[in-house]
């Protein structure tokens, strides 16, 4: 299947060449954006629009769950449980048309996003190879 739209080809290439850290950040940003759109649609009583946006946020949470490396231990298991909770909470928010429930998920997503961004920044600001080498010599 070839991509004839140059913009679509550019976007696909951009996503495929992102680091894992940036891709996760992009997924968090997308989930937050769709939650905001869902809230805005709820306020306008556009329940079809709210449903569409919240389902897209749910899809992103599913993607995060499926691609989580559960072999790394307890942290991954807890993160999976948190993603699962947010997914189920959004389903209920969508059914009940509850802006409060959507906001609760957004608060959690924002905390995860900010933590992930900070952890990535810290990771990239240190040269761990040098530190390991120093520990061996010293």
UniProtKB/TrEMBL annotation:
The keyword Cytoplasm applies. InterPro entries: FliS (IPR003713), FliS_sf (IPR036584). Keywords: Bacterial flagellum biogenesis, Cell projection, Chaperone, Cilium, Cytoplasm, Flagellum. GO terms for biological process: bacterial-type flagellum assembly; bacterial-type flagellum-dependent cell motility. It is found in: Cytoplasm, Cytosol. One of its GO terms (cellular component) is cytosol. It holds the Pfam family FliS. Its main location: cytoplasm. SUPFAM superfamilies: Flagellar export chaperone FliS. The keyword Chaperone applies. It comes from the Bacteria. Belongs to the FliS family. This is Flagellar secretion chaperone FliS. The lineage of its organism: Bacteria, Bacillati, Bacillota, Clostridia, Neomoorellales.
């Amino acid at each position: 299947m070839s991509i004839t739209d140059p913009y679509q080809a550019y976007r696909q290439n951009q996503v495929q060449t992102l680091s894992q850290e940036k891709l996760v950040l992009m997924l968090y940003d997308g989930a937050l954006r769709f939650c905001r759109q869902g809230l805005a649609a709820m306020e306008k009583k556009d329940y079809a629009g709210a449903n569409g946006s919240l389902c897209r946020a749910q899809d992103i949470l599913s993607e995060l769950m499926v691609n989580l490396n559960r072999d790394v231990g307890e942290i991954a298991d807890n993160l999976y449980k948190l993603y699962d909770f947010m997914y189920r909470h959004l389903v209920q928010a969508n059914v009940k048309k509850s802006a409060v429930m959507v906001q609760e998920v957004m608060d959690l997503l924002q905390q995860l996003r900010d933590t992930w961004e900070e952890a990535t920044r810290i990771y990239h600001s240190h040269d761990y190879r040098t530190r390991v080498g120093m520990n061996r010599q010293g």
